[in-house]
Amino acid sequence: LVRVKPGVVQAQVVDFCMLVALSVLSTHDDNCRRALEQLPQLTGCQVHSTVMLGEVDHKIFKKLGVGLSCDPQRK
User: Which of the chain's termini has less CB crowding within 10 Å, N or C?
Assistant: First the structure.
């Protein structure tokens, strides 16, 4: 995740697998722990995906408080 400007975050991949990996590794890796600690800062941001995401991904973004829009192609 890269903060481009206030309220704008650019990400290549934010999905369930990435969050699981961060959670698991955060007990041993300070960078992963710090990344998890920053997730609340995503609240209120908007995300656009160039493919349609599945229900699990929608729920993750909703739980993070992030607005999501997608293009009409299924992943």
Answer: C
Q: Residue 13: exposed, middle, or buried by beta-carbon count in 10 A (0-12, 13-18, 19+)?
A: exposed
Nearest CA to 35 out of 2, 62, 68, 69 is that of 2
Query: pTM score, two decimals?
Result: 0.65
* Distance from C-alpha of 72 to C-alpha of 32, rounded to nearest angstrom: 33
Residue 7 backbone zone (phi > 0: left; psi -120 to 50: alpha; other: beta): left
Helix (H) / strand (E) containing 53: none
Per residue in 36-68, pLDDT tens? 898 898 899 888 887 888 888 888 889 889 898
Report how far residue 36's alpha carbon sits from residue 54's, in angstroms, rounded to the nearest whole number. Answer: 22
CA distance 45 to 9: 7
Residue 28 DSSP one-character state: T
